[in-house]
Amino acid sequence: MRERRRERGLHVTRSSITQAVQWGRDSMSQTLEERVRSRRLPGATPEVALDAAAIRDAYRRWSSIYDVVFGGVSSFARKRVTALVNQLPGGTVLEVGVGTGLALPRYTPEKRIVGIDLSAEMLALARRRVAELGLRNVEGLLEMDAEATEFADGQFDTAVAMFVASVVPNPRRLLAELRRVVRPGGNILFVNHFAAEGGPRWWVERAMAPMSRRLGWHPDFAMQALLEPDEIAGIESRPMPPFGIFTLVRLRN
Question: Strand 138-143 to strand 156-162: parallel, antiparallel, or no bridges (unpaired)?
Fold first, then answer.
């Protein structure tokens, strides 16, 4: 009887140890990615905040080399989104974050384009491009805050924001403003880099996050920072080359 009690006690002790070890393994199986991400949700707010002054400073530095550094890697996505805009109904188009005007020659002459940007230096290059190429369908290039524009309600058939959502201080305010200036039934298009949910790219984005103010954009920008969960469920989205680092998102207004 005493031996049986001893064996039963040993069995309980072994079971407890096994459960403790398993609990420790389960706890350790939660990766650093998951622990950091859990601290940032809900809302997925980028680690470093950007304001208008930081954005202007960054793109003042970038303006002279922007086309060389960024133009190539973003060209595939730019071609795809302008091709989609050209197929959509309606003639009036607002391009938010028009930058140096890289996309402007790709719109058909039937589309009447107004471009806005926060960077005076980038806009100067865009105006030069329009003049050199004789782009008569570009009706205006304006220095303006995309989160608080001066346009009338429902003024545009389509708004397209390329590589902008991860730049502006308040992405959801940007979306609300685009919903205001696009007519009911119109289209709102975003092309943007959205943070990976894990893997090597996630680590790179996290490592780059503290440099957001110098870069002028958020490497760790999650789609949840732009869209509510019910909006994400209703969007059309597709990855863009190269390697799917950009995503094209379409919302019906």
Answer: unpaired
**Per-residue CA distances from 234 to 31, 42, 186 (Å):** 30, 19, 15
Per-residue pLDDT, 56: 64
Q: How far apart are CA 184 and CA 60, in angstroms?
A: 36
Domain co-membership, 20 together with 45: no
* 63-101 pLDDT per residue, tens: 566 566 666 667 898 999 999 999 999 999 999 999 999
Structural domain boundaries enclosing 15 = 1-30
Residues 6, 49: one domain?
Answer: no
Is there a single domain that holds both residue 13 and residue 89? no
Tens of pLDDT, residue by residue over 96-118, are: 999 999 999 999 999 999 999 98
Q: What pTM was computed for the model?
A: 0.70
Cα(23)–Cα(33) distance, integer angstroms = 19
The number of folded domains in the chain is 2
- For residue 135, give every residue at least 6 positions away whose Cβ sits within 8 Å of its Cβ, in sequence order, or none: 104, 105, 113, 129
C-alpha Rg value of the chain to the nearest Å: 24
The CA distances from residue 39 to 43, 109, 170, 208, 232, in Å, are: 10, 48, 20, 18, 21
